Amino acid sequence: MTSHPSRPAADSRSVADLFSADGRLKAIPRRPARREALLAHLTATLFEDGRDYREPEINEALLTVHEDFSALRRYLVIGGFLARTKDGSAYRRQQQPGSPGGAIPAVA
């Protein structure tokens, strides 16, 4: 086995490896660590901090990278990357992934 000089950036490399040349996600990773790295990347690149999104907006953004937008949306909420109001009417990018419950207080 040979050592690769780019190994210290393994996280960003692994995320880049998940995408095809056209920018589409090849598959949603099964391994939790790789999936979490992907979710963090998607959150940072697709969603603005401090902004509320309606579900169709979340779906549209996720469709730009993969057809299974509902699975990605679910992983983002369960993983604490996106918070959803209890009534499901709004989503918001979380400050810190992993917040318990995955819900934010009611949005006006």
Automatic annotation (TrEMBL):
Taxonomic superkingdom: Bacteria
Domain DUF2087 positions: 24-93
Pfam families: DUF2087
UniProt region (Disordered), positions on chain: 87-108
Protein name per the record: DUF2087 domain-containing protein
